[in-house]
Amino acid sequence: MLQNIPSPKTACLLIIGNEILSGRTQDANTRTLALALNQHGIRLLEVRIIPDIEDHIIKTVTTCRESFDFVFTSGGIGPTHDDITAACIAQAFNVSLVKHLPSFSALEKHFGTERFNPARQRMAYLPEGATPIANPVSVAPGFTIGNVHVMAGVPKIFTAMIEELIPTLPQGTALSMTGWHANGLREGDLAAGLTAIQEHFPQLDIGSYPYDHPKNGKGVALIVKGYHAEQVKNAAQALHDLIIAQGQTPQEGEP
Amino acid sequence: MLQNIPSPKTACLLIIGNEILSGRTQDANTRTLALALNQHGIRLLEVRIIPDIEDHIIKTVTTCRESFDFVFTSGGIGPTHDDITAACIAQAFNVSLVKHLPSFSALEKHFGTERFNPARQRMAYLPEGATPIANPVSVAPGFTIGNVHVMAGVPKIFTAMIEELIPTLPQGTALSMTGWHANGLREGDLAAGLTAIQEHFPQLDIGSYPYDHPKNGKGVALIVKGYHAEQVKNAAQALHDLIIAQGQTPQEGEP
């Protein structure tokens, strides 16, 4: 009998920053968060990359905190004029920014009184009622208010904050994800068989991703994921057998 | 006197695919589109990464095609069961999927009659009234309907479709973007100066991005962009002078 596993809680990531939208910088935080949430049993259901524009941030936060169980944000909490995330979140929650004394003291100690100028002091102001998220890399905290978790955009700091934050969130069933590479096959050759397997495992998510590998040439990655580990294993076996039936050898790891 | 340049048209990219949200795959298409749109004078104002879920796709397309001048999508137009983008776009526009005869013939010729099975034939069905976007890599077309431009997710094909599509769109003023790396400085040292420069150039977007380079260590990238090339040049000079005033030498290119 099929084990009954409740639907995972849902999450949305808001990447706040003109530098991704201008093409100057490649986002790295989506993957970091996705993998951490998979392990923790929360489903990353949407990512939005939005500009450093006050109205745009406030409107998006307001919509997303109603639509998802968890909202994570990255970017815009540094000391410069373009760091407006904390002020926007405060507005979205209709509260003021207030000096968070422990963070203020920690930052003052870190920078020394002389270097702790007004720009750096801004980083100790959090929306009223927010709880800080520790920053073991560069001291300036992220914060949680309601179901919104606000983190830095610099990947090293984002990763450190994720490691602080995720274990404090309610845990679900970890996502199981596995699959095979079918070197030498094409999606069109596998489509009918994949449809049959997907219909046999309606609670799983079976995906098919063509690739063109520099060394091994063209093929298709067949990936199965879901929250029932036993079913995922059985579906992976079915994918394995499908590749064999098409006359190729399933490959693990790199194509 | 300041040249009067109209505000650029706005664009949203929808990346449709569970493989990005699961962390299995790193998105590469945002940067490709962003750089092409910068050149063409269209502003990429938002990116949404959404799952292969019918309701989620239809709702997002419906919202975004009303909120932005252009909507671009990537992913979900192949031959397998998880390729549901074309059907969802048809629903969002309240039209049927119909066989597009020239695409059907081209695909039949490409695959040969025997390999042109029902799964592959699906790729020749477009929403009624859509115009195909040529696919010089693997024949199966993208398409345009209204202000929505639908493309493949595989980066090589996405890039080729972008190259076909962008020159057909109304052209604006290209975005000018430049800047300097300030090795050895910190955002907090530069914040007051940056605020003054931003206030002097209110029509430009001045951004500050800390880095920690493996070879050259910590510093800040100071980036200016906007649609007034002359102003961008003047602001870049001001950023240059700010770095000098803080006792460091501005660096071009890599930090």
Rounded to the nearest angstrom, the distance between the terminal CA atoms of chain A is: 35 Å
Please state the average pLDDT score of chain A.
95
- SSE run of chain A: EHHEHEHEHHEEEEHEHEEH
What overall geometry of chain A do the principal axes of the alpha carbons give? elongated
Major beta sheet of chain A, specifics?
6 strands, mixed
Number of strands of chain A: 11
Low-confidence sequence ranges of chain A: none
> From the alpha-carbon coordinates, what is the Rg of chain A to the nearest angstrom?
22 Å
Structural class of chain A: alpha/beta
Helical content of chain A stands at 25-40%
Q: Beta-strand percentage of chain A?
A: 25-35%
Q: Largest interface, per-chain counts?
A: A-B, 61 and 61 residues
Strands of the largest sheet of chain A, in order across it? 2-1-3-8-7-6
Quaternary arrangement of the chains shown?
homodimer
Total number of helices of chain A: 9
